[in-house]
Amino acid sequence: DFVFLQPGTLVDDDLELVLVKKVLADTAKGYFPAYQFEMIHIEGRKYMGDITLRVGNNENTYYGGHIGYGVEEVWRGHHYAARSLNLLFPFAKRHGLNPVWITCNPENIASRKTCERVGGILVEIVDLPPHNDQYPLGDRKKCRYRFDM
What is the structure's pLDDT at 1? Predict the structure, then answer.
């Protein structure tokens, strides 16, 4: 049985990752347990974006990755996603995830640069199968970045 861990304090300068939700597995959909964090600016406690850690390996994490993130437009350009990844990697390792995979669309240059900034290696660009839940959203390919813990 899966045991949720306490992430502890995840802070880097003006950035704090705040755990907002623990999501149980949905075996029918092939979804693993997950942690949802908000990126919070310490000064003023402003919401800057979110980042999710999914704990497990299957076809969904092959195409969707272990970690997904998004930064609000007004906060972009300050490497908050990269800094959030660096804060989250040790927690992923505590769950035995090694390697950690992050995927993004090939045209998402900002996300690709984020992955490369924190040491990700582009292993391949794969075709998304039509049954994947990202396919109806228009996604057709995914870059797969590997991070060795």
Answer: 82
